[in-house]
Predict the structure.
Amino acid sequence: MRLLLSLCLLLVMLFASMLIGSGNVPFVDALAALGNQGSETARFVVWELRFSRTLMALVVGVCLAVAGALMQTLTKNPLAEPGLMGVSAGSAFAIGLAILFGAGAADLSVWPAQIGALVGCLLVIWISQTQNLANDPVRLVLTGATLSALLLSSTAIILMLDDRVADEIRFWIMGSVAGRNVNTLYHVMPSLVIAGLIVAVFIRPLASIGLGETVAVGLGHNPNKIRMVIIIAVALLVGAATAVAGPLIFVGLVVPFTARAIAGTDIRRYLWQCLLLGPCLLVFADIICRVIVPPSELPVGVLTTLIGAPVLLFLVHTKRIPRL
Amino acid sequence: MKFSLYLSRVIGFIFHTVLLAVSLGFVSPLWAENRLVQTQYGQIDVPEGIKRVVTLHEGALDAAVALGIEPLGAIATRGGKGVATYLADSVPEITIVGTAREINIEAILALRPDLILASPTMQKRQYNLLSKLAPTIVPAVKLLSKDAWKNNSRVYAQALGKSVELEKILINLDQRITSTKNQLGQEGLTATLVRWTPQGPLLMSPDINSAQILAQVGFQLKGKEAIKAGRPHSDPLSQENLNLINAQWLFLSSVNQDGNKALQTAKLSPAFTRLEAVKNNRVIVVDGQLWTSSSGPLSAKAILDDLQQQVLSTQKPN
C-alpha cells in the first residue's frame, strides 16, 4: 500500500517533469506533445530535452538512494551517505584528473568516476573501522566531511591548473542533469545491472550484518566478503551517478531516512521505498531548478543541498542517533 | 665664498627658468595642453618624457601598442595567463602584474612605472594606492556605453601625448568599417554573439565593443532582453531557451584557444543543432580573448580582419 503511494508520487513527478520547464512551451502544448501532437518545437522540447533529463534524474536518484541505504547499513550509521562521506568527492576528483589528462566532460567515460568512488568508499570503510570512530555516527560524518573537503580542494587545485579544465569541472562540481550527454546513461547501464544483481543476491547477508557480525557469522555468512562486495556495488552506483550528473550530496541521506520512517529499519523492506523515493526527490528538485530563475536554471545540486541540509541538522540534533 | 655660492644659485635659477620658459614656449603647442588629462578622479598632470608605462586594462594595453609604445607591465587577459594572443607578439617582454579582478601592487611597484593606465572600473580605494606610485589614468568613460573603447583610447592617448596619432588610426578604422559594411552589402542581417560554456550559452551584450562593431558593419544584434541591465552578458541559458540565441549568424566565442572544440561540444547539444545559423552553416567561431575581453584600436582591427576572412568568405557561395 505504501509502496503503491510512493509509486503514484513518482509517476506524478515524472509526468510533471515532462510538462514543466524553463522555456516558453505552454503547458497545453507540452501535454499535446506528450501524445506526439502539437508543434514541432514543443515535441522537441518535451521529448529531446525534458525526457532525457528526466531519465537521468530517475537513474541518478535510484543510484544515490540505494548507495546511501547500503552505506548506512554497512557502517550502521544513519548519517553515512555518498555525498557527505567523500565518495562522490572522490569520484569528482577522479573525473577532474581525467579531464585534466585530456578527456572531455561531454564524452567522459564512466570508469574514472567509479574508480574514484571505490577509493572514496575504501577510505570511508577504513576510517569507520578505526577504533571508537564507528561508535560515534557524528564523528564518522565529520571525518567524511573532512575527506570530502580535502578531495574537493584537490579538485580546485586542478581547476587552477588549466582553464579549459576549470570550465568543464565547474560544470561537474555543481551537479546537474541539464545539458548532460544522455549517452552517458547507456555507458553506465552495465554497471547498474551488476550493482543491481549484487544487491539482489547480497541483501539478506547484508541485513544479517545489520543485526551484528556474530549473527551474520552464525547464519553462515562471511562479513568481510559481504562488505567488499557491497562496497563495490556502492562504488558502481555512486560512480555512475557522478558520471551522469556530477557530485550530489544529501540525496543518499534524505531518501533512506524518509524510507525508514515509512517502512521501518529493515533494509530488505525500505530499499524498495528508496528505489521509488530517490527518483521522486531528484526529479522534484530538478523541476524546481528549471522554474526558479528563467531563462537560466539552477544546478540541481544547489537544491538537493537546500533540501538535505535541514534533514542532516535534524538528525544530528535529535539527542540519540539511532544506530542501525 | 658664501656670496659666490649664492650668486651661482641665482644664476642657476635664472638659467633654469629661462630654459623652462623657452622649452614651454617651443614645445607647448605639441605637449602642454595634452598633458593635463581629465579622468574619473580629477585632472591628472602627466609629466613629460614618459618611459615606463604599466597598463591595467586590456584596452589600455591595446591603445598603447597601437600608438607604438611597449608597456612594461599589463594584466592577463580573461581566462589566460598572458596578454591576449593578438597582442602577444607585439609585447614579448611584458610582465604580467595580475588579472582584471586582482592586481598585484608589489609587482607594479617593482616595475617603477612613471605612468599607469588603469581600467575605467577601477575603484577609488585602489586608485589612491596606485596614484602614489605614478600618475594613474582612470578614464571617466562608462563601459558598455556607445563607442566606449574609442573614448577610452582617447584618454589613454592623451596621457601618452599621442592624441593626433590616435585620431588618424580611428579615422582609418572608420573607413575600414564602412568598406566592410559595403562588402557585406546587406542591412539587417541578424546575429548573436555567444560564449559557449559547459553550463550553457552566455549571450554577450550588444554593447560590448565587438558587438558594437558588428552593428556598425550592418548586423542587427538580437537577444538583449536576456541580459540583465548593466551586465556584459546573460547567465547561462537553459537548453529550452536556446531560441534566444537564434539568428542568421551566430558568433561563437571560446575562451580557450581551441575554438573549434567549443563548436564541437556545442554541436553535441541537440538544441544547438536546431538553430538557424547552425543549420545554414553560419556559425563563426571567434577567439573569446579578442571578441569578448579585449578592446581598443588593434582589437577593432583584428575583429574586422576576422569578419573579412570568415564572414565574407562564407557568404560568397550564396
Notes: Chain B has a mean pLDDT of 85. The first helix of chain B runs from residue 2 to 27. The two ends of chain B are 92 Å apart (CA to CA). Chain B is about 45% helix and 15% strand.
